[in-house]
Task: structure prediction
Amino acid sequence: MATLRVAPRAEAATMKSAQISKPGGDFEVVERPIPEPDAGHVRIKVKACGVCHSDAFVKEGMLPGIQYPRVPGHEVAGVIDEVGNGVSVWKRGQRVGVGWHGGHDNTCRECRRGDFRNCRNVKVSGISYDGGYQEYMVAPVEALVPIPDGLDDTDAAPLLDAGITTYNALRNSGAMPGDLVAVQGIGGLGHLGVQFANKFGYHVVAIGRGVETGVLARRLGAHVYLDSQTTNAAQELQKLGGADVILATAPSSKAMSALIDGLGPNGKLVVIGAAPDSIEIAPAQLIFGSKTIQGWAAGTPAASEDTLKFCVLSGVRPMIETYPLERTAEAYARMLSGDAQFRVVITMG
Ligand SMILES: [Zn+2]
Result:
């Protein structure tokens, strides 16, 4: 007599995700179904994801329109695990990253002009859709960055936001080799900014706080170190001829305001550190010497690709602390403390 065999019901495969379920909520590590990529998307098996101060937009609900629960994370490094319909260039098994620029519409005026960075409908990974604080994520192909050989996932991850932001801000600043370029703040952004500035051939001045920071800044490639606690950095910059560019990375508008008088003729203050209060400046400070203040936000995935390639060529690497996904809350707290040396990276098991 035949026995009826009943196959066990197929369980949907699941993954671990670190989500925020409401504005101001804590990180919860939950099991979720592994998502399928739609047309024009790929699924990435995440290896590492950097923890960035702007993840607070999701954690604290600081932007309108975020749908919860949401998985933050816009410094993602991993491997393509599945591709959706219509995806031809990107292949399974390919190492890729996703940064802040999480997609653009290809239809707005800026996109038609090729200015994808300023797309009117730009998407941010980990904000517009679930990001990299999980074992798998889905991303549109226009957000992908190939990761070159010779770069570890844990190093590539922070380069996809902190790295590209400093690299792109400096290379678009107009500074030429030999120019006096100051990097204000030796932290998550600034420790990369000093390295890039050195490799770009600038005369590099690091501006930080304390003697120990100076030792590190010189090791990273600063030719001159100014301790803002014991010197007037703007006056010291003038003694060196005045800065052609000051890359302002530390989120202190007061410190940035105090540095404007360190600019030389035609000098430019490039602002990438975001504090909520105002930078204060008198018109005459800009008028005499034709000085400029400019803001800068990361860049396109193509610029991220340039960043990663340059890091392989030049040896620039982030300094990182790693935490497993299960300890995401601790990793986030460490990033917020400002004590991390310097970028915090979540790794998947
Ligand atoms: Zn657009």
Remarks:
- The two ends are 48 Å apart (CA to CA).
- The mean pLDDT is 95.
- Residues 123 and 218 are 38 Å apart (CA to CA).
